[in-house]
Amino acid sequence: MSLTVAALYCFAPFDEPAALRQPLLDLCARQGIKGTLLLAPEGINGTIAGSAAAIAATIEHIRSLPGCAELDVKYSFASTMPFQRLKVRLKKEIVTMKVPGIDPARDAGRYIDPGGWNALIDDPDTVLIDTRNAFEVGYGTFDGAVNPHTRAFGDFPDWWRANAETFAGKQVAMFCTGGIRCEKSTAFLRAQGVEGVVHLKGGILAYLEQVPESESRWQGSCFVFDERVSVGHGLVEVGEKPESGSQPDDRG
């Protein structure tokens, strides 16, 4: 039986994220959903799996939460349940950057659709930056992308501050797995005074789903945070195995 996997996020102002947790947990449990959802004052993030009907019911509930009508969701499929349990957690941030005052809902950079991404990154005046950690980059990345060699997303701001002058005068294009880290990193760059910053809408997963392999600039596979381990073009499970315990939990 094929199971539906939904990678989702939305930056939205949750005044009381704790009040949202139990109803969401109860719904997911009733529907037989497994996976992880994170709730924070800045919104929701996570990846869950279950039957198509169960996922549809859960997505409908999440879209009803304050500011989540435009919830970003990317669907893929798995032959077996890719998660062992269900977790709905309260966090300070739905993706950890540790920079106060960043508001991706208001300040994120301009989106570039997967269909326009190749032309953008082929432009010699564009510098392409992979915002994921070094472990993930080891599975695959776009040809010519800068690898910051960070251990976790929270290291990205210090890396940028140390290297910003290198990219002066360039348009900065950034990408990540599903789009959430790019929302935050482009908002951070704009707060640093960088106006020419864009990011891949829907992240690598959207690109691998929408761009034909014959036209792709992607090299390798894309690490995902479940037991499928990694996916390739068409979001087909590749299943490469990581070294035990070596990857941080930078979701999205």
Structure description:
The chain is an alpha/beta fold and 252 residues long. Helix content is 29%, strand content 25%. The strands form four sheets. Strands 4-1-3-2-5 form a five-stranded mixed sheet. A four-stranded parallel sheet has the order 6-10-9-7. A two-stranded antiparallel sheet has the order 8-11. β9, α7 (180-191) and β10 (197-200) form a beta-alpha-beta unit. The mean pLDDT is 91. The longest helix has 15 residues, at 17-31. It has eight helices and 13 strands. Residues 122-216 form the Rhodanese domain. It holds the Pfam family UPF0176_N. InterPro entries: Rhodanese-like_dom, Rhodanese-like_dom_sf, TrhO, TRHO_N.
Taken from the alpha-carbon principal axes, the silhouette is globular
How far is it from the N-terminal to the C-terminal residue, by CA? 26 Å
Structural class: alpha/beta
Describe the largest sheet: 5 strands, mixed
Portion of residues in beta strands equals 25-35%
What sequence of helices (H) and strands (E) makes up the elements?
Answer: EHEEHEEHEHEHEHEHEHEEE
Question: Please, what is the average pLDDT?
Answer: 91
Low-confidence stretches: none
Query: Care to count the β-strands?
Result: 13
Q: Provide the helix percentage.
A: 25-40%
Rounded to the nearest angstrom, the radius of gyration is 17 Å
State the strand order across the main sheet. 4-1-3-2-5
Tally of alpha and pi helices: 8
